[in-house]
Specification:
The chain is of the alpha+beta class. The protein has helices spanning 3-20, 40-45, 93-102, 129-138, 181-190, 198-207, 242-250; strands at 23-26, 30-36, 59-65, 71-80, 83-90, 111-114, 119-125, 149-154, 157-167, 170-177, 194-195. The strands form 2 sheets. A 6-stranded mixed sheet has the order 8-9-10-7-1-11.
């Protein structure tokens, strides 16, 4: 076997698994923030595009926008009984933390913490991702709605499983205590998943039309220009950049796509 084949074969194996079975991608470098305090819902409600008045166990995607409605971050949210877990793209944690911190008013009862060091994160993608989770001991996840989440046991650790938009219509985020990361990953691989490289994932997500931070999702575009209309609620009231987003919707002013 040539050296070129040696290098590319794991990448191709991960790509094919994400298309036909299941593949696991390490997302340890992604942003993970915790927003607590009594005013956490109203705080995020006034800063982002989507409706945040959700129940524990639910989740959503919402967009942090500038006053000119440019994308600052796309946040995947988990609603917990005592706080909101905010997930975003690789390397975005410090910038999002600083942006949110500058918007905390004196009267706001909120607390913001980084969770990147205490949580490991994986994406499990592919049409058999749910079957792999079941085989790994997580039980049946077929009843989870899109962006809904629950805590399961994998490799003896409490792991949060959240359904997301994935490759071939099936995907999950897995969040585990950092010390258990390798054991959880090994259990998922043992259950039938294939390692997925970042290079292979980038090809897959472009083919699937999934925009990413730093590529399609930048401060040069608005949510509607990036194809994220479904994450902009029409009835939630004012938020930063809302007037421009509403104008684009009402008058069909999206000229750049």
């Amino acid at each position: 076997m040539s050296s070129t084949q040696d290098v590319t074969s794991p990448t191709l194996a991960g790509y094919r698994a994400a298309r036909k079975s299941a593949a696991i991608l390490d997302q340890g470098g992604h942003a993970r923030l915790w927003l607590g305090g009594e005013d956490r819902i109203t705080f995020l409600q006034r800063l982002t595009t989507n409706e945040m008045r959700l129940r524990p166990g639910q989740g959503t995607v919402t967009i942090l926008t500038s006053p000119t409605a440019r994308i600052l971050a796309v946040l995947t949210v988990q609603v917990h009984p005592t706080g909101l877990l905010l997930l975003a793209g690789p390397g975005q944690g410090p910038a999002i933390f600083n942006t949110l911190r500058t918007q905390i008013f004196f009267s706001d009862r909120v607390a913001l913490e980084g969770r990147g060091g205490v949580l490991a994160q994986f994406a499990l993608l592919g049409p058999q991702a749910g079957d792999v989770l079941t085989q790994a001991g997580a039980g049946d996840t077929s009843d989870l709605p899109l962006f809904g989440w629950r805590t399961v046991s994998i490799a003896g650790a409490d792991v949060t499983v959240q359904r997301i938009e994935g490759i071939e219509g099936q995907g999950f985020l897995l969040l585990a205590p950092a010390p258990a990361a390798q054991a959880v990953r090994a259990e998922i691989l043992q259950a039938g998943a294939t390692p997925l490289s970042e290079d292979a994932y980038q090809v897959l997500r472009v083919e699937s039309g999934l925009p990413a931070p730093g590529a399609e999702l930048t401060e040069d575009v608005t949510p509607l220009e990036a194809g994220l209309r479904r994450f902009c609620d029409d009835h939630k009231g004012c938020y930063t950049g809302q007037e421009i987003v509403a104008r684009q919707i009402t008058y069909d002013k999206v000229t750049n796509r």
